[in-house]
Predict the 3D structure of the following.
Amino acid sequence: MWCFSFFVPLQTMKQIYTKTGDDGQTALRGGLRVDKDDIRIETNGQIDHLNALLGVVRAQTRDELLLQVQRELMVVMSHVATPQGEENPRTLRVVELTSLMEQAIDRLTATKPAGFVLPGDSLPSAFVHLARTQCRTVERRLWTLNRQYPVRQEVLRFFNRLSDYLFALAL
């Protein structure tokens, strides 16, 4: 059985394709054109990949915290795509969500021993581990980005804690 999720777009798009990226460039927030392999675009691509994997996990687990995390990933992507010196009006909730994840980690691991695990005990758990490894990739890209374009420390902490949360959730 298929279940389709509908959403109201933030902006109505007249068409999906714009042809503006055919030359190997894309736009940051505000319209600044950069190469498609710019570290900001690469980082957002990795976050987008993580968000898609979290969607698979959430479809199997119905984890409400992951829904909040997915929404926050969109805000983080907006901040990553904001050129230096420009203001982004979208408010980050990473500190609040980091705290919620820490509480959830404590609950999830209270009765389970910590240690290395071999993914694959169940399909949902395997997908959570896949999302966890992608989260680690995002974290590495963010640290690379941070060398050129400063990233807020609470964002870096958020992704570190998210991978911990995913590990605990997979247990």
